[in-house]
């Protein structure tokens, strides 16, 4: 909560600017009523985990939507068909999680893809590969944080699709390679990565303008 | 030292550490769940230094042995296939990598289960003659590979709920699950298909998985 309010205060100060409004801003902050629109705290327990997944799916859905609105120069039919399906999956994941969360869903996040060169196939697919692999590791690490078995199965139904996407993207970059079968991301024990929210959120943060905090998730 | 300890010493120390941590987490989590599962014998078993297979809850042992059976099947399939010459040169790196992962999964699960591990089943990849050309015709081989990978994904997903509360053991199962999904996607790609069927992968019950796998068990 500390970082949420601090970030909110900074935004508020930046936006209001004039020194004369500082007292007003300061007076408004303690009730946190204003911070919800400027930041997203994921919440506790299963809700926190679902919101975490929802944040990542928002990021992915927004990314592929942008990719297909700005097709890179050498986009082949094969690229286009696969990226379109992946976009539709991410939108379905996002909407599923939003529906499951109902009123407890975090707001729509603002994204920042300024680091991506959407005119470059390599930049777009390289970014997609990073997002998919991050998603797989995030779901793998979040599984043990879930208490409701139905949510665990739902997360499982999404994570294997993310892993399928990851392989398909790698296959577009390096067709029929050992990397497309997982070499490089799978360790010599045959295991994929598993990361905690505290490891995943900083990796996603450069692409998300809205401050996302997870006060109670590990 | 017991036989179990000598088996444990053969697997990766860091994995043993993770499983051991998971076992402690499981103990504390079960303890927190109160009367549901924290029986005195279980608490004693979890607190002891006996081999994991003996100290794990029987439900977890059952799930891991079920997984081990599928991994034996997959490992044997790729061992035979990769030796047979059925795989065209351009796809050999993919199937060699997949085979390495399946063998790593066998080793890992056997290490966790110790003396509670089931033995490798006898296999017949022709399924009594139905796939007589499995190691001569690449399309048959690829189709069975896809079947086994998709089956593995659905099987691990279907068992995730039975590993809830097992901490690191659930995480390890998820880390295998997503690797199987990467394999499934790439093997489908080699067959010029999409790497998935839809936006959500479905789980399969143990009985449904065994029904699908039984024709290949001699």
TrEMBL record, chain A:
State the source organism's domain of life: Bacteria
**Pfam short name (any one):** Ferritin_2
Matching entries from InterPro entries are given as: Ferritin-like_SF, TAT_signal
What's the protein called, per UniProt? Ferritin-like domain-containing protein
Automatic annotation (TrEMBL), chain B:
Cite the InterPro entries for this sequence.
Ferritin-like_SF
Superkingdom of the source species? Bacteria
UniProt-listed Pfam families: Ferritin_2 (PF13668)
Please report the name of this protein according to its UniProt entry. Ferritin-like domain-containing protein
Name the species this protein comes from: Devosia aurantiaca
